[in-house]
Design a protein that fits this description.
The chain is of the alpha+beta class. It has a single domain, classed as Aminopeptidase, CATH 3.40.630.30. Helices cover about 30% and strands about 30% of the residues. The protein is built from five helices and seven strands, in the order βαβββααβαβαβ. The longest helix has 12 residues. It is globular and about 45 Å long. The model has no long low-confidence stretch (mean pLDDT about 90).
């Protein structure tokens, strides 16, 4: 069991994992995936999209058997150095605010999001998702 910055040759497996989780997001040129692997099989994944000068945390999913036992925390803390490079945002399900708060995300008004994220936020709400807007300030080291 280990976490890696996913190489290009893992892209097909990442897409299949997301499909199995019911997540429709692909893996664009602006994104980097980080995966939790067990026996070289993707069991968890999160992506960071670098867009318009900010980082967008996207597609954080774990297989159900791995939830609530520290794997998600390990995965999100693994990507924290990359989140430090710019102001970061995420649009998680409302019940996950404490989870994302572990690495400094704070709930914000959707009106304070960059325009491209306001549109995405509204789209997710129209789809019936109970989401919140969260922001994490850049941390200079």
């Amino acid at each position: 069991m280990y976490i890696i910055k996913a190489p290009e040759d893992l892209k097909t497996q990442v897409k299949q994992f997301y499909s199995n989780m019911g997540y429709g997001g692909g893996w664009s040129e602006n994104e980097q995936a980080y995966c939790f692997l067990v026996d070289n099989t993707v069991k968890g994944c999160v992506k960071i999209e670098k867009i318009q000068g900010v980082c967008m945390l996207r597609g954080m999913y774990l297989e159900k058997s791995l939830q609530r036992n520290g794997v998600g925390t390990s995965l999100i803390k693994h990507i924290e150095p990359e989140l430090n490079e710019a102001t970061s945002y995420c649009l998680p399900f409302a019940h996950l605010s404490e989870f994302y708060g572990q690495v400094g995300f704070k709930k914000v008004s959707s009106d304070s999001l960059p325009d491209f994220l306001v549109a995405r936020f509204k789209k997710y709400q129209e789809m019936g998702h109970n989401i919140i807007a969260m922001k994490r300030k850049q941390i200079s080291i």
